[in-house]
User: Fold this.
Amino acid sequence: GDDSDMVFASINLSNPDDDEAPYEHIQDRKGLKAFMDQKVEDYNTMFKKAPMALVMFKDAIELCCRILRIIQQPRGNALLVGVGGSGRHCQARLAAYIAFMKTFQIEISKQYKHREFLDDLKKMYEIAGTKGQQLMFLYSDTEIVEESFLEDVANILSSGEVPNLYSGDEMNAVRASIDKPAKEAKIQQTPEALYDFFISRVRQNLHVVFCLSYIGTSFADYCRMYPSLVSSTTAIWLLPWPSEALTEVALKFLTEGNLEEHYRAPVAEIFGIAHVAVSDYSTAMYAKEKRMNYVTPTNYLELVQGYMSMLISKQKQLGASADKLRNGLSKLDDARAQVAEMSIDLSEKQEICAKKSKECEELLHVIVGERAKADAQQAQVEADSARIEKEAKETQIIKDDATRDLDKAMPALEAAMDALEKLDKKSIAEVKAYAKPPEMVQKTLQAVMTVMEKPPTWVQAKNELNDVGFLQRIKNFDKDNIKDATLRKIEKFTKDPNFTPKAVGNVSLAAGALCQWVHAMKIYAEVYREVEPKRNALRRAQDKLEAKQKMLKDANDELKKVQELVAGLNKQFTDSNNEKDELQRTAEELMQKLDRAGKLVNGLAGEKVRWEASLGTFDEKQVALFGDCIISAAFMSYAGPFGASYRDELVGQEWMTPLKDKSIPVSAGFAFSSFMADPTDVREWNLQGLPADSFSTENGVLTTCGRRFPLMIDPQNQANKWIRKMEATRQLKVFDPNSKDIMRSLERAIEFGSPVMLENVGEELDPSLEPILAKNIIDNGAGSLSIKVGENTLDYNVNFKFYITTKLSNPHYTPEVSTKTTIVNFIVVETGLTNQLLGVVVKAEESHLEEQKGELVVKVAKGKNRLVELENEILRLLAETKGSLLDDLSLIDTLQESKVISEQVTEQVANAEQTMVKIDAARENYRPAGLRSAVLFFVLNDLVAIDPMYQFALDAYVDLYSQSIETSREKKIASSLEERIDDLNQFHALAVYRFGCRALFERHKLLLSLHLCSRVLRSMNDLNAAEYSFFLFGGQVLDRSTQPQNPAPDWITQQIWDNITEVDVQLDAFKGFQASLEQTLRDWKKWYSSGEPEREPLPGEWDGRLDALQKLIVVRCIRADRVLPATQIFISTKLDPKFVEPPALDLEQIYEESKNTTPLLFVLTPGMDPTAQLQALAVAKNLPCNNISLGQGQEPKATKMIDDGAKQGFWALLANCHLCAFWLPTLEKYIEKTFEAGPHKDFRIWLSSSPTPKFPIQLLQNCIKMTAEPPKSLKANVTRLVTNFSEEAYNRVSEQGKYRKLFFSLCWFHAVLLERKKFKMLGWNIAYDFNDSDFDISENILAIYLDLDPNEIPWDAIRYLIAEANYGGRVTEHPDNRVLRSYVNEFFSVSALQPKFMLSTLPTYYIPEDTTLANYKAYVREWPLS
Assistant:
């Protein structure tokens, strides 16, 4: 009923998985929203590779429920009518998911044609018919590759049958596949019945959802041609989202993005305001400029999502920058603190060093004294030591002598001792056991007793032997003190020859040993007698030596103490000195550190100040990000298609105002390009050819930073050139819609991450580009991305860039294209073009200035980029250093080096900028010339709004301007710069007028003059905008009830009176005009009734009171029929009469201006054929000219003729190109390829075509265009005929005097016939196509008859052939024939040969006496314009 909130659907909120839910009214709206949100989440979980970012607000839920209701019905089909990006596809997919249906959608590729479409239909029929499964076929008008697709879809909707879908064999297979369900349904087993059953199942289970846009005429055409689209579907209109929906969508994303809560509501509201404002501005732009721009929900979603991603990105970026600066400042502060500490430390160490130095000096004095003592003492000790050493050597000699003597006895002694050692108690007991020892034993013991100075008896011996220590006493016997008496007593034993150890040993071993000991004692005693004196002497010497050595030792000990004292002092001195040196070294290191640190800290002082200042603004910037990002995101999403003025108004008025109203912080003086673009990038763009004005910079940001691929409206080719240079290092691949293997090239670029540019696209893009433009990227996890293009799944490289450009100046792109690309308006703006053309004129006039300027621009840009790099490098080094900054010498050196380079670069940049200021000041003198030339370009550029053939390339215009500069300099030498600029401006304005006239039809040439005049006057601030607007549009009275009464309705019509009353109200200069006119009605009627009122003075005060434009307005108000001649007078007054005198077509001059790589195009009008004129020029230039008329099947012949002409150097004329419009893009590529190969220098390619919007724009712009049309006015027509006639033809007749007068009469006759056409039915009953061929034939008739008989001219024959056979052959109406004969009888008679024959009642027009061609030209030039 009337409840707009009522929602019906087959949904079970308590059991979402219920597939048989009843269709009922759902009252729980919160539950329904939760259900929908859950289904969206489930869908995205199931289809992870193609998730949908849906916000289920109220309208979206209702739309989904409507679609769900339709597709759940048997044979339910839906027609979703709305613009692209409104959510048609997403909502349909969600509805199908809720209904547990599969969704089928075709995938367009370059090779996708009707056969592939039928194959897809078979797949759907198999699912719906054979398997009996519910299926939704989602189809869109963008997928209508061929009209037959739509016809098949209409058949599915109406009957379910698609003609010729199955072949005979396939049909049998289809019938067999449904045999079982057919039997269950009790269907007759006939082929027809089975197929009908199959089709019924298809219609029951297949639900077509057709998404159709209402934009353009296609919607109405489709509905009219295929009624089933309406009759067999339920239509749903998708209207623009309401403000509540916009806010709800924004809040959802802002909440998910964790935006601060207090900002969410106002930001969401501003998003809605921005979206609506852009929609309003799009409407205004269309009304004013006829430029269409669509604002869709997709733009809004991009705004919201772009805002959050941009905000997060900018916060991170700003935070990182702030952290870098904070870290850099922290390091510098640490360094400053360390410098302060080191200064104190250095002062302390320097004090210690001074103290240590003093101590070392004092100690050195002590050491010197002590060392002198020690040296004297050491000298004495060394002398004593030498003497004692000598005595020691002498004592040693004595000792050696005694020892030598003693050594003689030692062997015997030692042998005896060895023998004794072998004796033990048992051996002694053996001797002792003898009661009566053997003689030798007894004798031996007696000898022993003798030696021991005991009684030499056995008894005594036995007693001794009984002594336990006997052997020990024997061994330790004092052999040195044997007395002489004892020695003598021993001799009596030792002299006994039998008393030998051996002999005694034979008796007793012990006795033998004692015997040997006795002999040894005897030998030793004897030797000792000799040695003893020596030993005594030795002992004395040793005692003496020992005493001296003791004295020496004492002296050495004393010396050692002294030396140890000196050594200690030396060590103390060395330690002190080392300590002092260490302190000095440390102090020097500290000084070096301090020096380096000072240089570093002082060197970075400027950076420190700048960083602190920057850091101070970072907090403000962080806060302002909330507002800045709103404007930037809105700009990125919406601003691309708009011109500079619209963008400024959107930002300044529509977006900035609500931000301030809602108290959302935003940067003062916010500029989108400054906020989004890095200055270094902008400078690089400028060097690569992007104009430096803010509008172009904004376009650069939109192109490089947009979330979607850019589609650039680029009629002047500036974006194209910039992209080519910017991406040149990455091997940019360029192609156009007519190139081969576009998709293959794109696929390779996607995988390798290469840039690609598709140029010269039209208003429709290839459907196979859809998945690339839509960026249907699949996230495979682990950083792996892929994209499905047609049937191929490709690895997606994030470095892939896709640029699209169009030459169309005002293309109409569908919402589908608008939502998938970022449309960027690259149409050149006046500021940017002024600077470009200023460079052209300065380069020509003062080339050194422009060269220097160019070098400095590059130098400054590179210098500033280098400064940024160095600052980043300094910050990076500061960030990466570990520990103390001053300990890393290499870091300090690197920083110092960077700082030095930075200072040098800064100085260079400053000097360069100062020089640039001077150069710019000098260049600014030429700015009026640059501005005027830019204004004149836009005069030409605006002409495309009149006719699509009026295309002018910026490059060609720059060449024209360069020619104007050179030619104007040659024609007149100016005395001052101001005079030179004025001369150049006047000359170039006329050159532009003539250049434009050459390409314009006659009916538009005065419009060009007026437009040029108005633009020039406006640039000089010499045009009242309100007055000029009134002149163009007139006065419109909305309410005539308040309008004053018309005082003279007999001659003042209602329209005139409307103009008079409105001009009095609207324009200040005309205050009182209405009253004045009423008071002087008689004077005004007289002025009104005059033949040429524009030349008459205005009645009363108004002639002196009004200026030229205001007088023109008076003519427009009262005599609208005289506006054109009045306009000519106005233009002549303000500019020059030459600006209303269109030049005649001069093919020779055009040929001289052309090059072998410049096509030349004749724009045809009915009845005009320039072939004969072109052939005549070719003959005059002695060059062959071949021509071919294009049409079906002529393409191979045309390309062959172009090839032959390019090689052999002849002219090729391709006539009637409009008859082969479909082939023109191919022709364009072929001509381009021919020019690139370098054709013969004499080669020219001439084209002729009637106006057609299908003519390729780039080819049009590259051509020199000429209109082949008779000019308007007698003067222009006669001028053209006289100018185009050659001297050779003119002088070929022998009877020159009569021929030349009749020739001029013929020119007048031809011009009169053409001029009568402008009077419509008053001139001719039918608009006859009199053309130059009629003139040429008539001229030949005159020449032939005058050559045959110059004295008897056959006037009747001449008049008949001209009036009846030639011109008359076109005339079908009898009254027109009578007029024609009247003219012929008057102009071709004997009277015409008389002196100064009058051609008209006006005195201006007659046949001059000087009949040379040059005089005719000069004479006609003096005629009035009309």
